[in-house]
Protein backbone atom coordinates (compact mmCIF):
# COMPACT_ATOMS: atom_id res chain seq x y z
CA UNK A 1 0.00 0.00 0.00
CA UNK A 2 1.29 3.54 -0.69
CA UNK A 3 2.25 5.49 2.44
CA UNK A 4 -0.67 7.85 1.71
CA UNK A 5 -3.20 5.04 2.32
CA UNK A 6 -3.60 4.68 6.11
CA UNK A 7 -6.12 1.81 6.07
CA UNK A 8 -6.39 -1.62 4.49
CA UNK A 9 -8.44 -4.77 4.90
CA UNK A 10 -7.69 -8.39 5.80
CA UNK A 11 -9.38 -11.35 4.15
CA UNK A 12 -9.10 -15.05 5.06
CA UNK A 13 -11.21 -18.09 5.88
CA UNK A 14 -11.53 -19.52 9.40
CA UNK A 15 -12.77 -23.06 9.97
CA UNK A 16 -14.34 -24.24 13.20
CA UNK A 17 -13.65 -27.95 13.77
CA UNK A 18 -15.23 -28.02 17.25
CA UNK A 19 -18.64 -29.18 18.43
CA UNK A 20 -19.61 -25.66 19.50
CA UNK A 21 -20.18 -22.41 17.64
CA UNK A 22 -17.52 -19.77 18.30
CA UNK A 23 -17.61 -16.01 17.86
CA UNK A 24 -14.69 -13.88 16.72
CA UNK A 25 -14.97 -10.64 18.72
CA UNK A 26 -11.69 -8.85 18.16
CA UNK A 27 -8.35 -8.63 16.41
CA UNK A 28 -5.02 -7.21 17.51
CA UNK A 29 -2.10 -6.50 15.19
CA UNK A 30 1.22 -4.71 15.43
CA UNK A 31 0.85 -3.21 11.92
CA UNK A 32 -2.12 -0.93 12.70
CA UNK A 33 -3.35 1.19 15.58
CA UNK A 34 -6.77 -0.47 15.39
CA UNK A 35 -8.37 -3.51 13.80
CA UNK A 36 -12.17 -3.62 13.45
CA UNK A 37 -14.66 -6.25 12.36
CA UNK A 38 -16.74 -4.93 9.45
CA UNK A 39 -19.54 -6.15 7.24
CA UNK A 40 -21.02 -4.85 3.99
CA UNK A 41 -24.69 -3.93 3.94
CA UNK A 42 -26.93 -2.52 1.26
CA UNK A 43 -29.08 0.38 2.39
CA UNK A 44 -31.37 2.24 -0.02
CA UNK A 45 -29.38 0.95 -2.97
CA UNK A 46 -26.06 2.11 -1.47
CA UNK A 47 -23.40 -0.35 -0.36
CA UNK A 48 -21.98 0.64 3.02
CA UNK A 49 -19.52 -0.73 5.54
CA UNK A 50 -20.59 -1.18 9.15
CA UNK A 51 -18.54 -2.14 12.18
CA UNK A 52 -19.92 -5.21 13.99
CA UNK A 53 -19.28 -6.71 17.42
CA UNK A 54 -18.50 -10.23 16.22
CA UNK A 55 -18.64 -12.93 13.57
CA UNK A 56 -20.20 -16.25 14.56
CA UNK A 57 -18.68 -19.43 13.16
CA UNK A 58 -21.03 -22.42 13.42
CA UNK A 59 -19.90 -25.81 14.70
CA UNK A 60 -17.96 -27.56 11.91
CA UNK A 61 -18.58 -24.48 9.74
CA UNK A 62 -16.43 -21.71 8.35
CA UNK A 63 -16.25 -17.93 8.16
CA UNK A 64 -15.03 -16.44 4.88
CA UNK A 65 -13.77 -12.86 5.10
CA UNK A 66 -13.77 -11.22 1.68
CA UNK A 67 -14.07 -7.81 -0.02
CA UNK A 68 -17.79 -8.25 -0.78
CA UNK A 69 -18.85 -9.23 2.75
CA UNK A 70 -17.44 -9.60 6.23
CA UNK A 71 -13.82 -8.46 6.62
CA UNK A 72 -11.32 -6.95 9.04
CA UNK A 73 -10.31 -3.32 8.61
CA UNK A 74 -6.78 -2.39 9.68
CA UNK A 75 -6.92 1.31 10.54
CA UNK A 76 -4.03 3.77 10.90
CA UNK A 77 -1.25 1.51 9.67
CA UNK A 78 1.95 2.00 11.64
CA UNK A 79 4.05 1.65 8.45
CA UNK A 80 3.33 0.97 4.76
CA UNK A 81 2.75 -2.71 4.01
CA UNK A 82 5.02 -4.33 1.45
CA UNK A 83 3.84 -7.06 -0.95
CA UNK A 84 4.88 -10.52 0.30
CA UNK A 85 5.46 -9.28 3.86
CA UNK A 86 3.70 -11.31 6.58
CA UNK A 87 1.17 -9.52 8.79
CA UNK A 88 0.55 -11.07 12.23
CA UNK A 89 -3.04 -11.03 13.52
CA UNK A 90 -4.16 -12.12 16.97
CA UNK A 91 -7.76 -13.30 16.73
CA UNK A 92 -9.78 -13.02 19.96
CA UNK A 93 -12.83 -15.19 20.54
CA UNK A 94 -15.80 -14.70 22.87
CA UNK A 95 -14.78 -17.69 25.04
CA UNK A 96 -11.37 -16.11 25.73
CA UNK A 97 -9.42 -18.22 23.27
CA UNK A 98 -6.86 -16.53 21.04
CA UNK A 99 -5.35 -17.60 17.75
CA UNK A 100 -2.27 -16.08 16.11
CA UNK A 101 -2.24 -16.17 12.31
CA UNK A 102 -0.02 -14.61 9.66
CA UNK A 103 -1.33 -13.28 6.35
CA UNK A 104 0.74 -12.42 3.29
CA UNK A 105 0.43 -8.90 1.90
CA UNK A 106 -1.07 -9.08 -1.61
CA UNK A 107 -1.48 -6.41 -4.27
CA UNK A 108 -4.82 -4.65 -4.04
CA UNK A 109 -5.03 -4.78 -7.83
CA UNK A 110 -6.24 -8.36 -7.42
CA UNK A 111 -9.61 -6.91 -6.38
CA UNK A 112 -12.16 -5.55 -8.78
CA UNK A 113 -12.13 -1.76 -8.72
CA UNK A 114 -15.64 -1.30 -7.35
CA UNK A 115 -14.74 -3.45 -4.34
CA UNK A 116 -11.56 -1.48 -3.68
CA UNK A 117 -13.48 1.81 -3.92
CA UNK A 118 -15.71 1.07 -0.93
CA UNK A 119 -12.71 1.40 1.41
CA UNK A 120 -12.48 5.11 0.65
CA UNK A 121 -15.83 5.88 2.36
CA UNK A 122 -14.69 5.71 6.01
UniProtKB/TrEMBL annotation:
Xref: SUPFAM superfamilies: DR1885-like metal-binding protein (SSF110087)
Signal peptide start and end residues: none
Alphabetized InterPro entries for the sequence: LpqE-like, Lxx211020-like, PCuAC_sf
Name assigned to this protein: Copper chaperone PCu(A)C
Amino acid sequence: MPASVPNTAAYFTLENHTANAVTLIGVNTSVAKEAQLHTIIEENGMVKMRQVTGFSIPSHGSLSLQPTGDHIMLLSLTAPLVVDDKVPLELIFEDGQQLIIELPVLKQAAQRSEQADHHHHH
